[in-house]
């Protein structure tokens, strides 16, 4: 894992003092809310439906047990005993007092954490593959690259007042576990002639105008990556629309210019800026990468032994994945108990996960964009102990990538932008399908719910998506089918008129019944939908 | 009727204008008629409230009920965490929202 | 910025942050500058293309860049483009210039400031001196931390 040096620590400490100063000026009246708002947002502090909300960055989703325990401490001390893990691999606390915010940041800084650029029209937290460093199929660990970009983007003087927010994801496998092409910039690290470089996509995103990012560069070498990103951002900062907030994301600029013209402008800009010495020497990437080396895996092969406990066997099958090192598994801890709140974890659960990471996973945890937690390196012989502890804490739901493993935004229960409540709907769907082996029979089925068109719940990327809207003051839910945020990326399409909360659960049952009736060997729901097209699904819903 | 609401600047708590000050309880909110904007400006200027705005509401026997579900959820708390609402002991409190 | 009033008046830039004498000539619009030969001062609106100045950069003593709203960040790129092209004269940020933006502006090459509303000099001093380390090379003299790490 990355460790701060004196410079990193000094920068984060200075940020704490800067924010303390800004909060004091707000409380004294020296700053109006209009002036303070972008300053607090750039430190992840929102004013939500019930209170201030603080979003803490978990860079590329990686943290250690000490950092995880700090999150539990903050939940317990400054909030109401829980936190909410988000689709950008961060965590949010829902009940923060403005006057406490500087002290919380000071506490976070003691464990090399912060809330820098977790909101605002700037470059946000860099996201990555939650299996990084553990996946067998990666060409390299993407996190050193993500850290390099994190540092470059932190307080970037030119790109702090962009037309709109800017999200970057970095992966290093053909398998996409990070919805890479649905980011403003998506980077896939690839190997060419024995060297690693960046395949760069730009202009993807969800929101009210979802788009899949086109390729902008097929191979940018490591020593030019930051100047290339500088060029990408400068073209956007200069020419992105500022007259209409709904058209201000880079995807609109690239769509309007065309990918070829955007690429031409970026290449022209890159020629100008790469001569300026913006790129750190490769020794800097090497310095960072040295901190992401493999932990001391044991070479003894320890076989996977389901011990006769059916619940353990089901969890082993569903929630653990292949590891690059023999004898180890990647464990995904589901934060989606049937009937629970997707992504929420209590302070006690957070502490327990920290303990398990320390004891069984070389002190490492990951947050996934699907709002789960990963223990990346668990020896097979420890799996039963891990599972037993999780079970006792209500964290052993065996539903990874099943229909009850729902991504849901906070929705109208917490969010001031929402039009409808996402969480109660997620609870109803999970309850409907979560018993009697129904979800296991359906197999992989990614269901994603957003409470408004901003799409924080990734509904466009759901095999089944649900979008909550406000119909004359009443919550209404539109159903979408056929999206994917993986390497087979696609955007879901709306089936037709919307439903009530119960109505949309019934409609989901109809489409999954049709899938069960019509699926062919080995087909997932998404595959059957792609083969059959929308029409038969529409017919069973509305016919 | 019209209610004036906002958040406490320091704590972030949802608050309602009572005619003489701010309360966390919508039941204590008063009809501000046409005077809401002036009160909002003065109170925001004095930093006694943050981001105040006016909402439509209906007078009921239990007090004012905001017209929009968003403001009813603000008034009560998250419907999915009854324990964190202003009426944790009332299992039926959530039905007031819907 | 010894004197609050100095920053109250648009066009009367902050002496403390200046590195050369303030320009006296009134700044003309980009369009006017491009159509006349003898202007030494130009004002860029937020959407103007700073690169249009590059062929005649040598004759310019002052470029004033407008910030119609502190949220409009185009002026940061305009400033860097001019500094990258070698412009050595006065680069002035004018408009909705707030104390929390000034450090970024300095890093992008601005060396004078004409904010519409007064800036508290104490807050400005803290703001400008706060960060002892920066992550990226800008238009200022600050060395990025990767340079300090690797020499």
Automatic annotation (TrEMBL), chain A:
InterPro entries: NIR_SIR_4Fe-4S (IPR051329), NiRdtase/SiRdtase_haem-b_fer (IPR005117), Nit/Sulf_reduc_fer-like_dom_sf (IPR036136), NO2/SO3_Rdtase_4Fe4S_dom (IPR006067), NO2/SO3_Rdtase_4Fe4S_sf (IPR045854). SUPFAM superfamilies: Nitrite and sulphite reductase 4Fe-4S domain-like, Nitrite/Sulfite reductase N-terminal domain-like. Keywords: 4Fe-4S, Heme, Iron, Iron-sulfur, Metal-binding, Oxidoreductase. Residues 119-269, 405-541 form the Nitrite/sulphite reductase 4Fe-4S domain. It comes from Sphingomonas guangdongensis. It comes from the Bacteria. One of its GO terms (molecular function) is oxidoreductase activity. Residues 52-109, 341-392 form the Nitrite/Sulfite reductase ferredoxin-like domain. It holds the Pfam family NIR_SIR. The keyword Metal-binding applies. This is Sulfite reductase (NADPH) hemoprotein beta-component.
From TrEMBL, chain B:
This is DUF2849 domain-containing protein. InterPro entries: DUF2849. It holds the Pfam family DUF2849.
Automatic annotation (TrEMBL), chain C:
It comes from the Bacteria. Residues 1-22 are annotated as: Disordered. InterPro entries: UCP030820. It holds the Pfam family DUF934. This is Uncharacterized conserved protein, DUF934 family. It comes from Sphingomonas guangdongensis. The lineage of its organism: Bacteria, Pseudomonadati, Pseudomonadota, Alphaproteobacteria, Sphingomonadales.
């Amino acid at each position: 894992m990355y460790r701060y040096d004196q410079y990193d620590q000094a920068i984060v400490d200075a940020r704490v003092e800067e924010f303390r100063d800004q909060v004091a000026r707000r409380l004294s009246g020296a700053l109006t809310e209009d002036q303070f708002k972008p300053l607090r947002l750039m430190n992840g502090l929102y004013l939500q439906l019930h209170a201030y909300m603080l979003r803490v960055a978990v860079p590329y989703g990686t943290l250690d047990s000490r950092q995880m325990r700090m999150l539990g401490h903050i939940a317990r001390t400054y909030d109401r005993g829980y936190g909410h893990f988000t689709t950008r691999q961060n965590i949010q606390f829902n009940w923060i007092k403005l006057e406490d915010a500087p002290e919380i940041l000071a506490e976070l800084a003691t464990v090399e954490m912060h809330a820098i650029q977790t909101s605002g029209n700037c470059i946000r937290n860099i996201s990555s593959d939650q299996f990084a460093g553990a996946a067998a199929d990666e060409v390299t660990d993407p996190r050193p690259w993500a850290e390099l970009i994190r540092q470059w983007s932190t307080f970037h003087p030119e790109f702090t007042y962009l037309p709109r927010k800017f999200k970057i994801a970095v992966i290093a496998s053909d398998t996409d576990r990070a919805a890479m092409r649905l980011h403003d910039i998506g980077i896939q690290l690839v190997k060419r002639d024995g060297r690693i470089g960046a395949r760069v996509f730009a202009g993807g995103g969800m929101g009210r105008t979802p788009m899949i990012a086109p390729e902008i560069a097929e191979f940018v070498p490591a020593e030019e990556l930051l100047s290339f990103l500088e060029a990408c951002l400068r073209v956007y900062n200069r020419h992105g629309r500022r007259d209409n907030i709904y058209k201000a994301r880079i995807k609109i600029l690239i769509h309007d210019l065309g990918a070829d013209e955007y690429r031409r402008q970026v290449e022209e800009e890159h020629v100008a800026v790469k001569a300026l010495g913006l790129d750190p020497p490769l020794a800097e990437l090497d310095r960072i990468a040295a901190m992401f080396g493999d932990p001391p895996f044991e070479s003894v092969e320890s076989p996977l032994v389901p011990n006769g406990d059916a619940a353990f066997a089901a969890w082993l099958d569903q929630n653990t994945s292949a590891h690059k090192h023999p004898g180890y598994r990647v464990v995904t801890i589901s934060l989606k108990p049937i009937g629970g709140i997707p992504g929420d974890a209590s302070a006690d659960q957070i502490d327990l996960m920290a303990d398990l990471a320390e004891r069984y996973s070389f002190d490492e945890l990951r947050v996934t964009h699907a709002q789960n937690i990963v223990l990346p390196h668990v020896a097979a012989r420890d799996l039963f102990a891990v599972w037993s502890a999780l079970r006792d804490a209500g964290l052993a739901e065996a539903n990874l990538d099943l229909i009850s493993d729902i991504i849901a935004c906070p929705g109208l229960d917490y969010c001031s932008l929402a039009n409808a409540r996402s969480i109660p709907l997620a609870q109803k769907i999970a309850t409907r399908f979560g018993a009697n082996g129904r979800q296991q029979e359906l197999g992989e089925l990614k269901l994603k719910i957003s409470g408004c068109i901003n799409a924080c719940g990734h509904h466009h990327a759901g095999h089944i998506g649900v979008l909550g809207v406000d119909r004359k003051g009443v919550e209404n839910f539109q159903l979408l089918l056929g999206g994917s945020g993986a390497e087979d990326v696609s955007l879901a399409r709306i089936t037709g008129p919307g439903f009530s909360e119960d109505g949309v659960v019934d409609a989901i049952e109809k489409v999954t019944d049709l899938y069960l009736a019509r699926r062919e060997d080995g087909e997932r729901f998404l595959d059957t939908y792609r083969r059959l097209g929308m029409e038969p699904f529409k017919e069973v819903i509305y016919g | 009727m019209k209610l004036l609401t906002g958040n406490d600047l320091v704590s972030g708590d949802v608050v309602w204008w009572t005619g003489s000050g701010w309360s966390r309880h919508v039941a204590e909110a008063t009809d501000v008629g046409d005077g809401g904007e002036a009160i909002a400006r003065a109170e925001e200027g004095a930093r006694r409230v943050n981001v105040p705005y006016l909402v439509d509401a209906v007078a009921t026997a239990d007090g004012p009920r905001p017209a929009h579900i968003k403001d009813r959820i603000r008034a009560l708390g998250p419907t999915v965490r009854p324990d964190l609402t202003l009426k944790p002991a009332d299992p039926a409190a959530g039905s007031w929202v819907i | 910025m010894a004197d609050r009033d100095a920053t109250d008046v648009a066009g009367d830039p902050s002496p403390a942050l200046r590195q050369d004498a303030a320009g006296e000539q009134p700044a003309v619009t980009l369009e006017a500058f491009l159509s006349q030969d003898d202007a030494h001062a130009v004002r860029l609106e937020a959407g103007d293309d700073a690169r249009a100045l590059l062929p005649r950069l040598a004759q310019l003593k002052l470029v004033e860049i407008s910030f119609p709203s502190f949220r409009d960040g185009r002026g940061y790129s305009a400033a860097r483009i001019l500094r990258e092209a070698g412009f050595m004269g006065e680069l002035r940020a004018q408009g909705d210039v707030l104390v929390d933006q000034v450090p970024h502006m300095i890093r992008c090459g601005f060396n004078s400031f004409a904010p519409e509303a007064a800036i508290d000099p104490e807050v400005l001093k803290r703001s400008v001196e706060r960060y002892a380390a920066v992550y990226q090379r800008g238009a200022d003299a600050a060395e990025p931390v990767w340079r300090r790490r690797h020499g």
